[in-house]
Amino acid sequence: MSLSFERLEETVRATHRRPGPGYFLLLLLAGSLAGFGGWAYSLIVRKGLYLTGLERPGGWGNLITDFVFWVGIAHSGTLISAILFLFRAKFRTAVYRVAEMMTVFAVMTAGLYPIFHLGRPWFAYWLFPYPNDRGIWVNFRSPLIWDVFAISTYFIVSTVFLLVGVAPDAAALRDKATGWRKKLYTLLAFGWRGTDEQWRHYTRAYLFFAAFATPLVVSVHSVVSWDFAVSILPGWHSTLFPPYFVAGAILSGVAMVIVILIPLRKWLHLEEIITPTHLDMLSRLVVLTSLIVTYSYATEIATSLAEPVADPERSTFVFRMTGHYAPLFWLMVTFNCVGPSLLLIGRVRRSIRALFVISLLVNVGMWLERFNIVVTSLAHDRLPFMWRNYSPSWVEWAMTFGSFGWFFFWFLIGLKLLPPVSIAEMKEELAHGAHGPGEVAHAS
Amino acid sequence: MPVEQGVLGSFSEPEAAARAVLALKAGGCADVRAAMPAPFPQVVAALGKRRSAIDFVTFPGALLGLLCGIGLTVGASVAWPIVTGGKPIVSIPPFVIVIFEVTVLIGSLTNLAALSLGTWHGGRPRFFPSQAQFNADRIGVFAAGADPTVAEQILRDSGAQEVSRVR
Hints:
The complex is a heterodimer. Chain A is an all-alpha fold. Chain A has helices spanning 5-14, 21-47, 62-73, 75-86, 96-110, 112-116, 143-174, 179-189, 196-229, 241-267, 276-305, 312-322, 326-341, 346-350, 352-379, 394-417, 423-432, and strands spanning 2-3, 440-441. Chain A has 17 helices and 2 strands. In chain A, strands 1-2 form a two-stranded antiparallel ribbon. Chain A is globular, with a radius of gyration of 23 Å. The model of chain A is unreliable at 434-444 (pLDDT under 50). By secondary structure, chain B is an alpha+beta fold. Chain B has 2 domains: 6-49 and 126-166, Alpha-Beta Plaits (2-Layer Sandwich); 55-121, no CATH class. Chain B starts with 5 loop residues before the first strand and ends with a strand. Classes of the chains: A mainly alpha, B alpha+beta.
């Protein structure tokens, strides 16, 4: 099989053709879900947080679960685009643009949920340090302020990284586009002409972006884990949390990339560019991170069970495994540990349908993991007279499903505006494997 | 951007373009430029340009971010001391997190600014004959200010598919 530069560009350009009714139906569905979630949130704004299922001791519930889940989803984009770039993993080329887009829209989603959770969200800007007449400043020792810095930095850096990567591709698309698309690509191309001077600076700057983004991605989910770990609550106060959260984030993010890529490559006719080999490599990442997550679960359980019977840490973990939320705990273990382990079997890994189902269940499992961490510890803390189970209200569920609607709404729009594959990097990779741009052998 | 005189060759293969660049340089053409859809290593190596100086902007940018982070956390804590649990007002370990994020943020934005400035050659971009194909599937090699007859011959001998004079 061979793929020429012209055909590559034509394939990518074809993804921006006028979509069919299926696209608009999906967009309507996503928009409606987001709208319903937004309306549910408007009830909280008008009437207060009592519409949620939150009550003492469970001060955090679905909304914080959604926040942690979406931050996790956002991690794969940077992993695939930046970390694998530094490791020179070539398989990233065909898939990283979709992952980067996913990152930006997932952070956009995640960042909303702590604000939704504020009693007075219209004062959310108080979280930022700025000189004011009151002469007061934020508490930099609070993990919630670390979150503000981590999430906003991550959003800005990942957006810049995405747009910088798009510039040469936008230039390639600009030259054959017409109407408003030409204007859009001209804007996104940022004056790109492809001269050696531009490439000289671009390749160096791209390396630095990757070098900045790599520790950033590790720091962001570590910071999110410290929201929990710096407290003294049983089930939260653990030094294991940062690596455990980072691995979990990458697991959920890569699984989401697979869930999105499998239908996308068929729908946008990208099968020649995003091949089963790429999916196979991504599934190996799922196996790797799932093993780290499984190890973390085992460590948590083993260390807590090693404590005396009356120890609160042990009590909380026994409650997690056998109490009110036990079905969710075991579903989490099944989806995050047992499911991905099936991918160790080559035949399962190469079956696109099996890979899709396993990855989808990993996403469900990772949401459950966040729910287990957030809810079970609060429901079963050090004081037995305080124990109370939390159940999300319909308003919270509406906002949870609304988050998916919000994410997919922007993602679907992004797909029609930005090239879903990096044209320039694909060309570079294709040229490496053959004689020249005119007609080159397929990289895979 | 003023139009410069020279000869432009269009190539379909990076190896041929790289050969042309080397031959032009050997033939006495000091100012050889190229445009291409991707940074093909052969062409980049043949041009032999020194490494981008973006490092000298991005690194100080990151250092500035570090100082801003320290200034923000320490300054704000001293300006509004929050005494909690006997902890020091200036608590370095938690501040390191914010300082790190600000370092990355300002470092990245400086990197972006340096890239923008660099790709526009400090507001004075160098002339290259504009052709859409150099973003698509061709590599353009431009011999600026060279003897047109000699440059044309070198470009043709190196395998250029099209050669034209730019006035």
